[in-house]
Amino acid sequence: MKLNPIISSLLETDLYKFSMGQAIYHQYPSYKTNWTFKCRNPGIAFSPAMVEEIREQVKHYCSLRFTDEELSYLGSIDWLHEDYIDHLQIWRPRFEDITISENADCGLSIEAYGTWLNTSMYEIPLLAIVNEVYFRMAYNYDELFSQYKTKLSQKVDWLLTGKYNIGIFSEFGLRRRLSAEAQELAVRSLCENNGKYKDSKCVGTSNVYLAMKYGVTPVGTMAHEFVMCVGQGNPMYNPAYSNKLAMEAWTKEYGVLNGTYLTDTIGDKATMLDMGYTYSICFSGVRHDSGDPYAWGEAWVEHFSKFYEKYKDERVNPKTKTLLFSDSLDFERASALYSHFKDRAKVAFGIGTYIANDTDVPPLNIVMKVTECNGRPVAKLSNDLGKTMCKDGEYVDYLKKTIDWRLNHE
């Protein structure tokens, strides 16, 4: 490796990898998945030297193991069970599951294949490695970091002066951070000023390692992969019911704990069909990740209000539910959303790239998505067609047809 190790701990991943991981361990240990890397930025090219550095960094990541201190920390999280912690004690990343090579598209190809239990854990560290290698090798990193520190200081000042008031928010930037030191500086700077902001509070980070290090809250529930694999990985089930299957599995695992539901995997309308009165009680809130955030928030306030008006049950009162926004946010957008919804629901934000990689150069828009489960294609449709990622266009057409049929007949 030419650079220092980018990933220094197996805790250096997003919390939802552990919440999903436990459900996979208990309910889907034999599922197998394929994952594919994609860079959405036009004109980006990874050099052969970058590809080689990424390969060496991934080898280093695969040499890591959970320490006793890290396992003890995970064991302190209420909803993680002892048997899953025991599994993590012997778990290791497998370099043989991952293929890294050059290609003619952006210069970099990454594929991962193996049990879902393993491959799910690779996504976030691999993306963090790719991102940091690129910015350290494509630019003068010291200049970028200087720009980053200036912009971060300005963000803290904006919250201190009340230029932007965004209520509860968390740092969500691990996968697209400028660097490990940049993300750590952000978490430290934003959280140490809590109590001084006008009407904002940084409650924590999705990065479990930094949450442990700084004694802040690790934040996260589930990702699209859970709905995709649970709902589309078994040919016995109609994929238009992906959310119903995912909700059943999640509440089987956690009951009413750990309950913010990601709504857009196959579109919010399909999700609302399955989140009836019972699941509206079980889930403490919903997360936005695509589409118009105002229309989304209004629709979900109306959804919970419908049950509240019918049953007069405070457990479905929209004022008790969290609307968690996490799509391409900055403080200006978050402040406007907070002002719009704060009197009708609990409002929270997960803010990633804007906090963890804001410099004078454009950030990378990179993803690593599950594209097959158990040898079958799976797809995320979301509310933005540009976010759809699947290797089989025929399957995407089939999935859309099943959803459309259901929406038009129920």
Textual characterization of the structure:
The protein is an alpha/beta fold and 410 residues long. It has 17 helices and twelve strands. The chain has helices at 16-27, 48-61, 68-75, 82-90, 116-119, 123-138, 141-161, 180-192, 208-214, 224-232, 242-254, 268-274, 277-282, 293-311, 331-341, 353-356, 393-409; strands at residues 32-39, 98-101, 109-115, 167-171, 200-205, 217-218, 260-262, 285-288, 322-325, 346-351, 366-373, 376-377. A seven-stranded parallel β-sheet has the order 6-5-4-10-9-8-7. Helix 14 links the parallel strand 8 and strand 9 (322-325). Helix 2 (48-61) runs antiparallel to helix 6 (123-138).
Q: Output the radius of gyration.
A: 21 Å
Q: What strand line-up does the widest sheet have?
A: 6-5-4-10-9-8-7
Could you tell me the mean pLDDT?
96
**Gross geometry:** globular
Strand content: 5-15%
